[in-house]
Specification:
Elements (H helix, E strand, L loop, with lengths): L1 H68 L6 H24 L2 H20 L8 H24 L1
Helix pairs in contact: 1-2, 1-3, 1-4, 2-3, 3-4
Length: about 150
């Protein structure tokens, strides 16, 4: 009778221990999943912030190119704006390199080179209107970038 009681107490304790251990592990796994989701969401938000900053820098650089080739600005003030715009594009591209996937970075580099080239050399076509020629020059690389980013953020 004493042995039966001791076996019952031991079995009950073992079952209780296993149940608590199982619940503890399940709670740890749930916490790990929640933490991973939060980290992934924070990283995604950080990437979006950098991608938007890059697009804003590209847009500003496009305006600089339009000012030069459509509005015929070419003074020292324009040259300073052009240097600043190109620098900003490259700085924001480098942040993409740090926080985004390789394919996103490569697409951003394509846009950065297109912007740099159109500011330095103008659009390939010297016909009017030059503002549209600037946009046409940059559009293919920008579209590749947007498509890659779209796929990356899904």
């Amino acid at each position: 009778m004493v042995w039966t009681t001791l076996i019952g107490v031991g079995a009950g304790g073992l079952i209780s221990f296993l149940a608590q251990h199982s619940l503890g592990r399940a709670a740890e796994r749930a916490e790990t999943r929640r933490s991973t989701r939060e980290r992934d969401e924070t990283r995604r938000n950080e990437q979006i912030t950098h991608l938007i900053a890059f697009l804003a820098a590209v847009q500003a650089a496009e305006r600089v190119a339009v000012d030069r080739y459509h509005h015929q600005e070419a003074d020292e003030q324009w040259e300073a704006r052009a240097r600043q715009a190109v620098d900003r594009v490259w700085v924001t591209q480098k942040t993409i390199h740090m926080v985004c996937a390789r394919e996103v970075n490569e697409a951003a580099r394509g846009v950065a080179f297109a912007v740099r080239d159109v500011i330095r050399n103008g659009p390939d076509d010297s016909g009017e209107p030059q503002d549209e020629k600037v946009w046409t020059y940059i559009r293919p690389s920008r579209q590749v970038f947007l498509d890659v980013v779209h796929d990356h953020l899904k």
